[in-house]
Structures are given as C-alpha cells and as structure tokens.
C-alpha cells in the first residue's frame, strides 16, 4: 500500500504522535510525505519515507501528481482548519484530485484512525472499487 503524510505546522506534533503509535502498521508499506512532516516522522520512528518539497513550495502538488498517476492508495493530511494557509489553492487541488480518483484522505485524527485500522485488518477493498470505476476524464 502507498501512503502519503501531510501536516500543517500546528498539526505536525499530532502527526508524529499518530504515526509513532501506529508505526507497526505502517512498516512494510511505501510511504511518501511533504518535506518537514516526513523529516519529523523519520526522526521519531524507524520508518523510511520518500520526502517531497514542503507543502507551500510545491509538495502538495507533487503528492497530487502521485494521485493523478494512480501511485497512491491513501493520504493522511492533518489540516489546521483554524489557520489560513498561503497555499490554499494547492490544498484544494489535492483534495479535488483525491475525490476525482477515489483516494481516501483523512483530514483529522478520527478519520485517520479508522483508515489505519482498516489497513491493519488488511481491508484494501476500496482499491478494487477505484480501479473498477476509474473515472473517464473528458478533455
């Protein structure tokens, strides 16, 4: 399974704590992240994460490109709903791509926990649905 982690500045500690708690579930999966979030996770765990640029510098768009190329199965994106983000258009574009391509995205700990528990059970059925009903994008 290919999983991406993104966290806004005020959510990075929460992300690190979450990934640390579920490190045993994430082992053996391919993981991606925006720059600082990935660095912080790797410093706190034994996980190896492919890091892209920081979100405001293009990392959100790089993760979005993986979604559009069918290279991701799940995104955990801990957003800060109380802080305006200078790269909000990039965030909206990423979330839109997740909707278009049927990629589950958790934007809070409660949803992230539900998805990670599904991974722990080996419940990957949503990928079959995504491939069965892959959207036909009209140009």
Automatic annotation (TrEMBL):
Catalytic residues of the enzyme: 60
Domain of life: Bacteria
Pfam families in UniProt: MGS (PF02142)
InterPro entries, per database record: Methylgl_synth, Methylglyoxal_synth_AS, MGS-like_dom, MGS-like_dom_sf
Residue ranges the record marks as coiled coil: none
Keyword Repressor: no
The MGS-like domain, residue ranges: 1-139
Reactions this protein catalyses: dihydroxyacetone phosphate = methylglyoxal + phosphate
CDD domains according to UniProt: MGS (cd01422)
Annotated NCBIfam families: MGSA, PRK05234.1
Name of the protein in its database record: Methylglyoxal synthase
Species of provenance: Paenibacillus forsythiae
Gene behind this protein: mgsA
């Amino acid at each position: 399974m290919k999983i991406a982690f993104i966290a806004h500045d005020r959510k990075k500690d929460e992300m690190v704590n979450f990934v640390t708690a579920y490190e045993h579930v994430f082992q053996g999966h391919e993981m991606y992240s925006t720059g600082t979030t990935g660095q912080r996770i790797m410093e706190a765990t034994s996980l190896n994460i492919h890091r892209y640029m920081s979100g405001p510098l293009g990392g959100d768009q790089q993760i979005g490109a993986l979604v559009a190329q069918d290279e991701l199965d799940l995104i955990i994106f801990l957003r800060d709903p109380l802080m305006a983000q200078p790269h909000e258009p990039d965030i909206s574009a990423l979330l839109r791509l997740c909707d278009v391509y049927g990629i589950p995205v958790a934007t809070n700990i409660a949803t992230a926990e539900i998805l990670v528990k599904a991974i722990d059970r080996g419940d990957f059925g949503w990928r079959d649905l995504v491939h069965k009903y892959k959207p036909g994008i009209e140009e």
